[in-house]
Amino acid sequence: MKNKIKLLTVIGARPQIIKAAGLSRAILKSYSDRIQEVILHTGQHYDTNMSAVFFEELGIPTPDINLNVGSASHGKQTAMMIEGIEKVLLETTFDGIVLYGDTNSTLAGAIAASKLGVPVFHIEAGLRSFNKTMPEEINRIHTDHVSTLLFCPTEQAIKNLVQEGFKLNNLAPYHINNPKVIHSGDIMYDNTLYFGEIAEKKYQTIANLPIKEMDYVLCTVHRNQNTDNLEKLTAILKALLTIAESTPVIFPVHPRTAKKIEELLSAEWKLKLKQTNLHLIPPVSFLEMNLLEKYCRLVLTDSGGVQKESYFWKKSCIILRPETEWVELVENGYAHIADTDTEKIVSLFNTLRNEVKQEYKPLYGNGKAGEFMLSEIEALL
Ligand code: UD1
Ligand code: UDP
After folding, report:
1. Quick one: pLDDT at residue 318?
2. pTM above 0.85, yes or no
């Protein structure tokens, strides 16, 4: 009998933990007799509401290994992860490593595995902002270029890879020098479909807020370009305060942002943020987040994941960045780029607040990306 395929899944940051739920679920449902998944948590995110809450709520297997690296500078954090992942790969033979997205945990997995000849399977391959001042852009370019299977969520991601020299007509056997670029759809669409229904059953109130349907806007901000720059941070907050004059704003605050608000803002600003219509709350669980997205009027965000979830829930999105990797959202009029321009954010809010789009064409696959990716991994090994 053929041995089970043994995969090492590396996660570390909030969105990766959530994405990994999709693949783990597909393994348990259809592949548990053929694929064994070992989960390694780098420890990049460690607060209960940035990590543990997702394992409990989304039914993800407890990580077999936790490197507990915690927060540090990019070099130090990534180096500690590489060392830890390399040790695991040297101790146990794996058929491949599964990496998600574009964080330092992704890059560390890519470097450790590729140098040991372990095939890299990159989920969310090919995304580009074409802005190399973003740490994520550097992480994703490096990861893609040492991958064997590149699972692209969108047509645009495929085009981006072709522009960088990837070929779409490579034939098996696939390996680091002859990779396979695959249009897989987006595993987060699988997750929204699956957990969206469960969310409704689990929560009667969200984060203990007296929320009325369509009566509030949802905001998240965590990009270092926005949080670590006082001018940009206050430009966003000014817009939120203006919006809050007419509409409640619910803002689950990422720990990076909470830290910067505490460090950079004056006492006067901190007082302004106590405005009753502006709800700065701790990060919420994924199920709660889905409900917040489902029932809000619209979304303001600099998050990659939240931009797409706005579309999944048919909500207009104002992007608090100068560009996006998810260009199809903007091209189809589902999302709008405002960067940190206070006036533009407020004027987009005024235009979009009453707009209800009927037509949301499918952009991210059929909700079965996880199972499809596993079939490709099985075919390779
Ligand atoms: C990371 C990813 C980013 C992703 C985001 C998702 C990189 C380079 N960045 O950004 O791509 O969009 O995760 O949320 O990998 N902190 C805590 N508790 C935690 C985690 C972080 O307090 O559990 C604070 C620490 O002060 C830390 C800061 O947040 O220094 C930033 O954390 P870090 O993981 O370095 O980057 P993120 O901004 O979270
Ligand atoms: N999210 C969450 N709770 C929150 C904020 C976000 O569960 O308080 C989820 C969100 O629904 C999405 C993911 O976290 O699935 C996005 O992660 P984040 O914005 O941290 O990172 P990015 O997607 O920008 O890399």
Report:
1. 98
2. yes
pLDDT at 214: 73
Residue 162 to residues 217, 256, 380: CA-CA distances in angstroms?
38, 35, 21
Q: Is the CB of 304 under 6 A from ligand 2?
A: yes
Give the active site residues.
Answer: 222
13 Cα to the center of ligand 1, angstroms? 7
Cα–Cα dist 8/40, whole Å: 7
Give residues (CB < 6 A) around ligand 1: 13-15, 44-47, 50, 71, 102-104, 135-136, 222, 224, 254-256, 259
Pairing of strands 65-66, 35-41: parallel
DSSP β-ladder status, 5-11 and 298-301: unpaired
pLDDT tens-digit map of 296-350:
999 999 999 999 999 999 999 999 999 999 999 999 999 999 999 999 999 999 9
Domains and CATH numbers, the chain: 5-186+365-380 (3.40.50.2000), 193-352 (3.40.50.2000)
Question: 342-360: string of b/e by CB count within 10 Å (b at 16+)?
Answer: bebbbebbeebeeeeeeee
